[in-house]
Design a protein that fits this description.
Order of helices and strands: EEHEEHEEEHEHHHHEHHHHH
Strand order of the largest sheet: 4-3-5
Radius of gyration: 30 Å
Number of helices: 12
Largest sheet: 3 strands, antiparallel
Oligomer: single chain
Structural class: mainly alpha
Shape: globular
Length: 443
């Protein structure tokens, strides 16, 4: 008997069962395995869908949603396979209510998007059930952005995912700007790209780096060589590497020093003359307060307009860049740089909640209530050894029955509906009731 996470993992030896083997067949699993697998699915669901609304269409919110789980419907938009302008994106709620049993492409998450389900992009054959008040399809969402992902294609190789022609594992990363997904070996990255991928928080593809030249000035904050990554911050697959912002802080300190010097010069009106403070002191209180506020605003404006963007681009030439968790904090927010961000439509880079990682964290927090995994673990720990064996045996029996039941749908090429699943479990419950039968009383 081995103690696993405070629970007893049981190996039962009976008859001709080989030592160390479970009494159940090799395809059997322990209840702990079931609960752990369910927890993984719950965590994945929370990360991708937890922060999205599954009951309200995002079109009704009026504006583009900062970030949400999105899907592309190829059933309603078959022409999109050959024409990107015919693509349409639908929110999570509409996949449940309006596009059930349709061929959907899961897009993970996209930023600044408004659901297309009630719009002209879906054509006249579809009517959004979550927006019944619309008498006719609404006009298209002009600010929505579409890429090849809506056609089910990804990367520079323009292949689907998963790729039916590939047998090896596909490692893909999403660009923080264009939001396309790329195979690691197609990124044309440095030799240590695998290590950088494990340590980075976000990746920007080579095409986006070329399109947004201002980013090249910040590559000093990007992860570069293997030996520059602190292995102490690596935590399995969920790696987060902290960006060294010391250079940025040094630059800020210099700016503050220059600002203090400028303020001192402004406040000092010269030898033999009254200082600005003296001048203000002689004014009425209301005017004095106004002069003080004007001076503060002037100083704040001067500090705001001091650009802290690095002047050179270091040794960057081309290709993708890999960034740590805090890299966005290094971006300058002076008036000149803000104009650049607006012109290139990348103001979202200054938003701490824009990143996919931030979205996932919000989803996990939303699903922070006690999970079925935790309930199951506690329930399993509360029963004795014999009951644990009964539970595991019953689960494996149900699993085999369900597998056989679903196989009939595969053979007949039928879609499994919610009613079909409910019917299966109803039959299971009825069988259990028959086995229990009428109560027997000893005389």
């Amino acid at each position: 008997m081995e103690n696993v996470n405070g629970l007893n993992k049981i190996d039962v030896n009976e008859g001709d069962v080989q030592p160390g083997k479970n009494a159940l067949d090799e395809s059997s699993v322990t209840m702990l395995d079931v609960l752990e697998e369910e927890k993984e699915l719950e965590d994945e669901y929370a990360a991708v869908l937890g922060a999205s609304d599954d009951k309200v269409c995002t079109y009704s919110q009026g504006d583009a949603v900062k970030r949400q789980a999105l899907y592309s419907c190829l059933t309603c938009c078959p022409e999109s396979l050959n024409d990107l302008t015919k693509c349409a994106g639908i929110c999570l709620a509409c996949t449940y209510q309006c596009h059930e049993n349709h061929e959907l492409v899961e897009l993970y998450t996209k930023r600044n998007f408004r659901c297309d389900c009630p719009t002209e992009r879906m054509g006249s054959s579809n009517k959004c059930r979550l927006n019944p008040g619309l008498d006719q399809p609404a006009v298209v969402n002009q600010d929505n952005v579409y890429n090849q992902n809506f056609q089910g294609l990804y990367c520079n190789c323009h292949r689907p995912y998963p790729d039916p022609e590939r047998t090896a594992e596909e490692i893909m990363l999403q660009c923080a700007i264009c939001e396309d997904w790329f195979h690691l070996h197609h990124l044309d990255g440095p030799p240590n790209a695998q290590k950088l991928m494990e340590a980075c928080s976000e990746m920007i593809c080579g095409s986006c780096m070329a399109s947004h030249e201002f980013l090249r000035h910040y590559t000093g904050f990007a992860l570069k060589a293997v030996d520059s990554i602190d292995d102490s911050v690596v935590d399995g697959n969920a790696t987060v590497a902290a960006v060294d912002l010391s250079a940025c802080e040094d630059n800020d300190n210099k700016l503050k020093s220059d600002l203090d010097k400028s303020i001192s010069e402004i406040m000092n009106m010269g030898e033999g003359e009254a200082t600005l403070n003296d001048a203000i002191e002689g004014e009425p209180s209301s005017k004095r307060a106004k002069l003080e506020n004007d001076e503060i605003e002037k100083n704040e404006a001067k500090q705001k307009n001091m650009c802290r963007r690095p002047s050179d681009i270091g040794d960057y030439e081309k290709g993708p860049t890999f960034w740590g968790a805090d890299w966005r904090n290094a971006l300058c927010r002076c008036a000149s740089c803000m104009q650049v961000y607006r012109g290139e439509k990348v103001e979202y880079l200054l938003d701490a909640e824009d990143s996919a990682k931030s979205y996932e964290e919000r989803g996990k927090q939303k699903a922070a209530a006690e999970s079925s995994y935790e309930q199951g673990i506690r329930a399993l720990a509360s029963i004795d050894r014999v009951q644990q064996i009964d539970v595991i045996t019953e689960y494996n029996r149900m699993k085999d029955r369900l597998k056989d039941y679903l196989q009939t749908f595969v053979a007949n090429k039928k879609v499994v509906t919610e009613d079909d699943i409910n019917r299966f479990f109803s039959e299971i419950r009825n069988e259990k009731n028959v086995e229990i039968g009428l109560p027997h009383f000893c005389r």
